Structure formats: C-alpha cells, structure tokens
Input
Amino acid sequence: MGGYHGPDQHHAAPRYGRPLRLGVGGPVGSGKTALTAALCRVLKEELNLAVVTNDIYTTEDADFLRRNAVLDDDRIMAVRTGCCPHTAIRDDISANLDAVEELEDRHGDLELVIVESGGDNLTATFSQGLVDRQIFVLDVSGGDKVPRKGGPGVTSSDLLVINKTDLAPLVGADLAVMDRDSARVREGRPVIFSSIREEPAVPKVADWVRARVHDFRHH
Amino acid sequence: MRNDLLLLADSRLPAGGHAHSGGLEPPATSGAVRTVADLADFLHGRLHTAGLAAAALAAAACRHAGNGPDPASWLVLDAEADARDPSPGQRAVARAQGKALLRAARGTWPSPVLDALGDAHRARRTPDGRGPHHPVVLGVAAFAADGSPHDAAAIAAYTAVSGSASAAVRLLGLDPLGVHRALADLSAAVDAVAHEAAGHAEDAWADLPAPSAPVLDGWAELHLLADLRLFES
Output
C-alpha cells in the first residue's frame, strides 16, 4: 500500500562530512520509540549510528533504549524539552543540535543519527536545520480519520508510517481509508503500514532508511 | 530602542531558553509558588540576586568586548561568573545556555569577538563545561549587536524574570494577563537593577556584585535529583 517510486521531492542541500540526520516524530503512543528501537536493532550491525531522544517529563525513552540494550550507552543522548516538544525540534533546535554534534564528536565516523521527538500532536514537524529527512509515525488506534486531518507531519514528512495495523479490526479503523486519505494529502510521498508487534524487524521502514543513508552519502 | 537589541531580548531568539524555568519549577512543584502574587515575590527575589549578578557580568562583558578579541581574558571573566554561582548544577546549566546563546548570536551577528569567546572555551573543555557562562555571552552578543553595557545589563535583568514568568504560565496554568501585569509592575525594579549593574561595567571584575540566594541554589540542586521534571533547570 502507498508505495512511491517517483523522484525524491525533498530539496534540502546535502552536507558532507557528517551523518544523515533522521527525525522520527508523531503523537504520544504512536510507536516512535518502538520504531527507533527496532531500527537500531536491525541497522546497528551494518550502520554506525546513534540516537537523540526528546522526553517531555523524564528520560523514559532514553532509559528504554538503554534497558533494552539496543545501542551502547554512549550512543544515546536525552534532551529535555521544557513543556514544548515541538519547540525543541522546530522553533529552537539548539539543545538537539548540541546533542547531535556531541554524538558526532564522540563517534567520528557515524553514518546515521536518529532524533526521536517527544510525543506531540499533528502540528509537530522537524526543522530543516536539525534533520535531513523525517519520518512521521501515526497509529491506527487514533481512528482512521487522522490522515485526513493533515498537519505538516502527515502531509510533508519524507515517510509516513502508520503503525499498529494489527489493532485495526479491534478499533474499527479502515486501513484502505487511511491509505486513500494519506495518498491524497501527501502528493506521492511514501506511506508504509506497519505492525512492529507482528514484524519487529520493520523491513520496509528499514529498507527506506538504508536507501536514504545511501542517497545522502552518494549524492 | 534599536531593532537588533529587541531581537536579542526576544524570547523567540533560538537559544534554548524555552527548556529552562529560571529556577521556578522546584518551588512550583513543591507548592511554594502557587499564585500570581507568589510569583511576583519570587521574581522580585530572583531579580535582585541572580538577576543583578547576571546583569553586572553582562555589562562587564559588553564593556570588555570593546577592547577587541582577547581569548585568554574571557576565561578570567568566566571564572568570576563561576565564583558567583555556588550550585554545580546551576553552573552546568548556565554553561549549556551560554553555549546555545553563543551559537545563536554567532549565527545572527557574526563578530570576531564572539568567535574569540567561542575559541577560548573550545580550547578549554572542562568536565561540566559546555560553553561560556550565559551572562558573559549575552554581554558580548549585545556588543556584537551594537549595544552598550547598559543595554546588555537591561536585557540580562529582563530575561532573568521573563523566563521564569513564562515558565509559570506553563507549569501552574497562571492567567497570562495576570503574569504580564506582574512583570509590568516589576518594570521600575528591573530598570533600577539594570542601571545599578551598568554602573559596575568599569569595575575590576573581582569587585562585581555577588549577591547570593541560597534557597535558589539549593532548589537548583534538588531539581537535578527529581525523577519527574519538565524543565532542564
């Protein structure tokens, strides 16, 4: 569903000598941390990577990644966002940039830095000053109307992941409706339906990330 | 009032301020500050302690920036800032905020003096040291934006209270109009602190004001131990 094979519509200038910076944003509970952890598990053997987490209230997400040992401790940094998760990834990115640069200094040959935003709402989007590409994560349990409601993450992210498809029958969400509405507002940008619970290796998302890292290095 | 200085004073300057409550979160959490009147008292105390110290450092930094780039001397002024901040956590926060402001100021008002300040600190990376102290950067940024030591002091005094005030709106749900009224009521006091601080711009650095607020310092340390907190400081 939602496959996109046309040219990349993102125009951010490539910056050499540093890793691809990938934002992962989306509402609270949609599965950002689970997706980030899955990507780390799958990609850490083939890519040199690190993660910045943004937590609203605690360092819960960083702790989760550490507890589950998906990456070494010194490859994970937590940023606290003072009540405003979207501010820290959009309007005032200084704390996140600082963390990203610290990780890049620490590990000179990084290929990928994932910046996971704090759980927010449909208005959240990453600044081009912070990330090169961004994934927006929704889940079906919010109802199948969510893609229709739009917002910059839904319409303009480089990849929209619609997660927890295994719950669709339980919450009465129609995946075909979500696919149709996403395609309408996203003007061809890709959408991937996923169930991290059923497919913990997130193969389609991992392939998409691999391709973006490859593009960035060989652009 | 010049536009560059309005930009520097604006909380929308992307320098990381939104993640800091200016020491308000611990008293807000513990219940010591609950109302607009409590907040007004808190701001009054903060203005005359942390605010005055920051404003005097900013004025001195702005004055010294007029002498041209001199990396080694910035470490001396920075040590004076350290000496006026007894809480290790607060010092680390002041340096993190200084580093963020330095990034924003260098991007906004490119200047050899800001570069020299950055170079001095990159050369000396201390364990808790992320950058120069915030008031020192603010003073140099005011100079780069063509401001006077008095301008630097005024912006430091203003931001010493405005940051905590906006955090109060978010933490306590206080009426934003009531909070702004409290800020307006403090205006004469903020101006007076700025004036007093600017009067120290020519002092020997060791003689700069060093007012202390032990409760704020203690709260700053407790804040770092809290499991749940919304603001970095």
